[in-house]
Amino acid sequence: MDIRENVSLKTYNTFGVDARARYFVEVHSTEELQEVVRQWPGERPFILGGGSNLLLTGEINRLVIRNCITGMAITGKSDDKAWVSAGGGENWHRFVLWCLEQGLGGIENLSLIPGTAGAAPIQNIGAYGRELKEVFHRLEAVELSTGALHSFGREACRFGYRDSIFKRELKGLYGITRVTLELSTANHQIDTSYGAIRQTLEEQGISAPTIQDVSRAVIAIRSAKLPDPSVLGNSGSFFKNPEVSTSQLQRLKTQHPEIPHYPVNAHVAKIPAGWLIEQAGWKGQRVGDAGCYEKQALVLVNYGRASGRDIYELAERIQQSVEEKFGIRLEMEVNVI
Questions:
Q1: Does residue 237 carry a catalytic annotation?
Q2: Residue 333 catalytic?
Q3: For 233-250, what is each residue's pLDDT tens digit?
């Protein structure tokens, strides 16, 4: 084990926060991860993937294990389905593009989401009308206290909106080594229900889009709205879109008739967090080197030297402003450490 001490994590998190790990090691296989956790004498390690859904507010005074387990493969096929797997450390967008190259559909709407395949089920990533849970089959994960390998199916993951059992009861207890999805090989269910996708395809003159067309549209939309982390530190969407009861929505509409909303079911609606933040006056604002992105209020950014604590305190101020104006408490989507 090549365990290093006192390692800066600045290049390993997309906010570019210069926190440090007391100990640091990279693993490239399930077996390496098992060996590390079985031999490590200290407290339970911290698993680091792409660092794209992470805000480091201080030093990590334990072993940080960076998941570098890569590889992609088709593991099975039926008439109209294929099962594909990716290593937990595989870049998610690279995996999406590879699946599209194989003619496999189901995750094209999730193009250009930063992070790794192993982090995708933890967050139950979603975008533009689709969520990972819709195509998820199973995952393999190493228990960090024993090194034992476990398998979790869809039900065991207890997926929710940007949520799973790995963000709740099992938070920090497992390192995900492989993720398997069930994708379509033909008769793809193209989803262009999200308005921006339809508009982008119309502008491109595409009336019968393929899965590749949808992916390209999503990439164009995300590229226009979200800053490149290599240029401006960020973690994508910082807050979840809040869900409110229909009765609460009606009360809000009496004061804010223009409030955008989308039905979840007959009793619940979703309100865009970015709109709430913008209405509270935060879009384009900055406090020191921590700021609210000028093109998308849902994104908090590091203009250079902001600490994780600076960004967190800005997030708290935004939460307070939105709650005072709308009576809605925004929930952070980013994992704060």
A1: yes
A2: yes
A3: 999 899 999 999 999 999
